Amino acid sequence: MIDLDELHRRVPIADGHADSLMWNRDLNQASERGHVDFPRLREAGVKIQAFTIVTRGLPLVDGFELLMRKEGWPSAARAGEWARCLWQVGNLERYCAESRGVAAVTGARAALTDNLAAGRLSAIIGIEGAHAIEGRVDRVAELARRGVRFMSLTHLSNNELGGTSTPLMGNRPLTPLGHEVLDAMGQHGMAIDVAHASPAMLPSLLAHPAARPFCSHAGVRGATPLWRNLDDATLKAIADKGGVVGIIFAPQFLGGRRLDDVARHVEHALDVMGEDGVALGSDFDGLIPLPQGMRDVRDLRRLTEVLVARRLPVRVVEKVLGHNFRRFWGEVLA
User: Fold this and answer.
1) 137: pLDDT confidence band, cut at 50, 70 and 90?
2) d(Cα 42, Cα 45) in Å, to the nearest integer?
3) Confidence grade of residue 2 (pLDDT, cut at 50, 70, 90)
4) Closest to 129 in 3D by CA, of 155, 106, 107
5) % of the chain surpassing 90 pLDDT
6) Which of 29, 84, 111, 150 has the fewest CB atoms within 10 Å, counting from its CB?
7) Roughly what angle, to the nearest 10 degrees, separates helices 300-309 and 259-273?
8) Could you tell me the CA-to-CA distances from 308 to 65, 79, 149 in Å, in that order?
């Protein structure tokens, strides 16, 4: 009989995607709002959490301005996408500094190792859509200096760097500016998140000689054939470059509302990528419902129960829960 509590204490549980910062909640305060804060992450046994910076909303009808006003963002933080980005990065820095050793922004491999030894949460910063730099390639260096370690070039809509995977947006390829930003990311050791890349742009991202491709949150088409999900060729290409795919928890992309649906996507990704390429990419706090039986991050153990019950080897479950992202971030943060 497997002791799941002991497993969650022992394994460096890691999640590839949480949009918690846009909600302007003090992450040091335990809350019943949303899915993630430092106390709940600690209770769930999460040791590595990627926090993503969102600066733009849906195409055509962008409600992000309304969200910012509703959540009490100051006017200076709403002034533009770069201002929105830096404000959220600054908030995470402040929350970690005020956490009394519970969490730390983690931009180097030695810090990741130290945090795991000390029981601190490693907060890894990513940008969801490089429109946040407002066309300024030099800002990639500023983000790297502030501890940002990954970025996607597009999010929910096309931008000046390339195309989104969102339907009816034209399937646009990588642009010359996108090439420049990719080069800068490679120079500064930032991983490229392919989560929202258009099919036409994916080959350029996967073939870049310096940038490390991975996917922070997605489903897989072999389990549920939807536009948002990654096909087997993309999964294989990411695995071949040492990357990891975080499996999303959103029912609309899983093809069902049960934790078994998350497990189906995990299993297909394992079949294609092997046991070193698959991880968790919840999309916590990302305007999505969670599977039935999951309130927030504290219910990760229920997913572990499902993975074990489906007879995945414990070694593989441990890799999916944390060891794969632990390995990947250890390489990127070097």
Assistant:
1) very high
2) 5
3) confident
4) 155
5) 94
6) 29
7) 60
8) 43, 48, 32
Specify the pTM: 0.97
| Secondary structure of residue 49 in the 3-state scheme | strand
Q: How many CB atoms are located within 10 Å of the residue 179 CB? A: 14
Picking from 186, 206, 182, the residue whose alpha carbon sits closest to that of residue 194 is: 206
Beta strands in 158-268 (DSSP E): 191-193, 212-218, 245-247
- Token code pair at residue 171: 């399937």
Element (H, E) at 124: strand 121-128
Spatial CB neighbours of 311, under 8 Å, sequence gap ≥ 6: none
DSSP letter at 135 equals T
Q: Provide the residue count of the chain.
A: 334
Which residue in this structure is represented by tokens 């830096």?
A: 86
φ and ψ at 171, to 5 degrees?
50, 55
Number of continuous H segments (helices) and E segments (strands) in the chain:
14, 9
Give the bridge partners for 191, in sequence order. 150, 212
In tens, the pLDDT along 66-88 reads 999 999 999 999 999 999 999 99
Token representation of residue 18: 């949480």
Over 90: is that where the pLDDT of 36 sits?
Answer: yes
Which one-letter amino acid corresponds to residue 331? E
* CA gap 288, 238 in Å, rounded: 25
Nearest Cα neighbor of 151 from 88, 216, 107 is 216
